[in-house]
């Protein structure tokens, strides 16, 4: 009975949390980003404290240093990036038209290679894809307004997020002590173990995967710009920053890059192959070097579950939901694994006799 009451209480708290997030979804963006920034910078503040800085001075030094770096990078690169992104959006319809003309030019070879029936199916699929792409481009400004990326929202976010991060960092130790005092004394050790797992998973998401995302964006943008691909900086940043969605960043960047390369470099197939090689090479580096070193097994989330979380929370909370999806999926994954462990230790799974034997067999 006590276990059932606990389950009902936790489910009720979860429902209340989702309801509160949904009600206040319109104002959550600076608080979510500020909390993520505070979580990311807390180890640096702790390190300065070990060097005999006070908590307040450590917070000021770390936050001002990070803001100085961000503002410097903003004024150095954002005008160029914004110009390229606007130019890419304006140029995309012409790229689509050029690709259609190339397809018409190559249609005899395609018919000979695939056969008339399959070639017609391919042409129909490409036409559908073109219509969807043009429709997306046409509705993009409205979508940005819908998710809250308006000028006022961006200004409010840039002002409020650092303030939220400052006060959270300043009182981080007090918040941790307060949460620790609220834990039920009978199960404190077990709950703290779950919280440690969640902290490890969140560190993998925010610190580890965030580092991989930035490295992806830097490599793609640099490599595509070096080989002279039109709008290579913008396409590389899009591919890198969308890499938090499994396979989407890679597929989106590769598709855009190959489409631009076909128009720009055709019939120089070596340059088109070089563009594809950049993505394949970095996917190998990311999967075999970056993820094992920076993320490891701390997240341990199935890609299907990750995509579901992104779509579900994005539909519920908009842009804020997309930001919350990955850490919430990481937390849910930890809780599900804990629930499975407890289920396999229960009489419901083992039966009364087997559970007694199992407990006696434990050292």
From TrEMBL:
GO terms for biological process: transmembrane transport. It is found in: Cell membrane. It comes from the Bacteria. Its main location: membrane. GO terms for cellular component: plasma membrane. Keywords: Cell membrane, Membrane, Transmembrane, Transmembrane helix, Transport. InterPro entries: AI-2E-like. It is a multi-pass membrane protein. The keyword Cell membrane applies. The chain crosses the membrane at residues 7-23, 29-45, 57-81, 147-170, 212-231, 237-262, 269-285, 305-336. The keyword Cytoplasm does not apply. Belongs to the autoinducer-2 exporter (AI-2E) (TC 2.A.86) family. PANTHER family: PERMEASE PERM-RELATED, TRANSMEMBRANE PROTEIN. This is Predicted PurR-regulated permease PerM. It comes from Devosia lucknowensis.
């Amino acid at each position: 009975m006590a276990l059932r009451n606990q389950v009902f209480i936790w489910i009720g708290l979860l429902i209340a949390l989702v309801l509160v997030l949904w009600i206040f979804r319109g104002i959550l963006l600076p608080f979510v980003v500020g909390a993520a920034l505070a979580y990311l910078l807390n180890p640096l503040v702790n390190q300065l404290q070990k060097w005999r800085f006070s908590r307040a001075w450590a917070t000021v030094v770390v936050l001002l240093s990070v803001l100085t770096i961000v503002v410097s990078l903003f004024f150095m690169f954002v005008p160029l990036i914004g110009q390229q992104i606007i130019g890419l959006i304006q140029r995309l319809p012409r790229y689509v038209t050029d690709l259609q003309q190339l397809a018409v030019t190559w249609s005899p070879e395609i018919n000979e290679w695939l056969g008339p029936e399959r070639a017609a199916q391919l042409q129909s699929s490409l036409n559908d894809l073109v219509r969807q792409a043009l429709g997306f481009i046409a509705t993009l400004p409205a979508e940005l307004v819908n998710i809250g990326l308006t000028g006022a929202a961006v200004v409010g976010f840039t002002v409020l997020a650092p303030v939220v991060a400052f006060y959270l960092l300043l009182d981080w130790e007090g918040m941790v002590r307060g949460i620790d005092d609220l834990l039920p004394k009978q199960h404190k050790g077990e709950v703290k173990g779950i919280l440690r797992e969640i902290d490890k998973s969140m560190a993998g998401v925010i610190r580890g995967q965030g580092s991989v995302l930035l490295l992806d964006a830097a490599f793609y943008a640099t490599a595509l710009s070096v080989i002279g691909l039109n709008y290579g900086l913008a396409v590389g940043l899009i591919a890198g920053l969308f890499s938090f969605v499994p396979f989407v960043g890679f597929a989106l960047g590769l598709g855009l890059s190959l489409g631009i390369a076909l128009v720009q470099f055709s019939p120089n197939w070596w340059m088109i192959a070089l563009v594809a090689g950049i993505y394949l090479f970095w996917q190998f580096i990311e999967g075999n070097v970056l993820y094992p070193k920076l993320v490891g097994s701390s997240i341990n989330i199935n890609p299907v579950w990750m995509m579901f979380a992104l779509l579900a929370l994005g539909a519920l909370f908009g842009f804020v939901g997309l930001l919350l999806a990955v850490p919430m999926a990481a937390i849910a994954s930890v809780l599900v694994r804990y629930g499975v462990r407890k289920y396999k230790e229960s009489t419901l799974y083992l039966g009364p006799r087997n559970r007694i034997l199992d407990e006696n067999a434990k050292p």
